[in-house]
Amino acid sequence: MASNYKELPSALPAKEAKLYSKGIELVNDFVDGLRRQGLLPERFTTILKQPRLQEIQTSVEFTATATIVTDRERMATALGLTLEQIAQHPDEVNDKTEAYLGSFVNYDDKHKIIPVFPRIGHLYHIYTDYPKVHIPDIDLAIGGVPKEKLLQLVKDMGNQISSNAEDMLRSSNFTTIAEGQMIRLFKAPITALGFHRGATIKEVYARIDELGADLCPAEVGPDLRIQDTNQPTNDWYCIAMKQVAGSDGDPHVFLLARRESTWLSSISAGSDSEWSPGSRFVFSIRK
Fold first, then answer.
1. For residues 214 and 206, what is the distance between their CA atoms, to the nearest angstrom?
2. Contact, 76 vs 85, CB < 8 A?
3. Cis link prior to 277 (omega < 30° from 0)?
4. How many CB atoms lie within 10 A of CB 244?
5. I want to staple 92 with a disulfide (CB 3.0 to 4.6 A). Which of 25, 38, 87, 96 is the partner?
6. pLDDT tens-place string over residues 66-105
7. Any residues with CB less than 8 A from the CB of 286 and at least 6 apart, and which?
């Protein structure tokens, strides 16, 4: 009969016992993560958190060497940080934190989402899954350029611009900031916002707000097109912004893409429009 993971199988070799012990620790870390996000009822947490770990550790003399490296340990090694400098929950962030590895969607005791970005928005190393899901940070210069000149700068830099995007730039609803300033941005797939089966743009925007971040000023679209000169081929992402009507009259947001050349384009973004899990949005840090 197969034993469950809480029990030590009889006559277990030392090497396997050490792996078994480490596995229990990893399971408990996973359970803790689910509990912090409000995804696991407390009664299950209590049940799962009672493995016979001490018995396992004391009943076997560990003479074999077995190493299991966690993502946090790999991240620490790659970035030259200590484990204590990598927070895995918003409540762990302090003045010594240099990086974040964990979910953006965490819940407090009242089951409300904790605004994570006011706590981690200053960090330069943010992952929701290391090394697979890195959340790039962007420090972007915006403002101080009239929209007519901004449109011309987009073209002068060799970018292509779609007719809808050009109509958006010429719209009376598109404005630029009078004085130049820096704005801090992040680019994240909507899976990192907690939407693993896709979401409407209304849901995406609401989640950005719940996480303590903001939509971008509309001019981030053309400004980022000018400054993002290293976009990979076949890459695309959207700007989380208040929608502006395109030439077809529908609400649009800017889309930045690179095919044979770099494009400032747009995409229809009605409040009920559906976005796939891989869709990425750029949003700004709340000041």
1. 10
2. yes
3. no
4. 22
5. 87
6. 456 799 999 999 999 999 999 999 999 999 999 999 999 9
7. 117, 118, 121, 212, 213, 214
d(CA 240, CA 181) in angstroms, rounded, equals 19
Mean of the per-residue pLDDT values of the chain: 86
- At 17, is the secondary structure helix, strand, or coil? helix
CB of 72 closer than 8 Å to CB of 82: no
pTM: 0.77
CA distances from 198 to 191, 212, 275, 280 (A): 8, 21, 5, 11
Q: How far apart are the first and last CA of the chain?
A: 59
Q: pLDDT per residue over 206-235, tens digit each?
A: 999 999 999 999 999 999 999 999 999 999
Burial of 187 (C-beta count, 10 Å sphere; 0-12/13-18/19+): buried
Average the pLDDT over 42-49 and give the result.
Answer: 46
Tokens of 279: 């869709």
- State what percent of residues in the chain have pLDDT above 90: 72
- Is 175 exposed, middle or buried, given 0-12, 13-18 or 19+ CB atoms closer than 10 A? exposed
- Look up tokens 């609400």; give the residue: 251
Inter-CA distances, 18 with 10, 52, 57, 65, Å: 14, 13, 8, 8
Helices 147-156 and 163-170 cross at an angle (nearest 10°) of 150
Beta bridge partners of 239: 282
Q: What is the DSSP letter of 203?
A: H
Rg (CA), the chain: 24
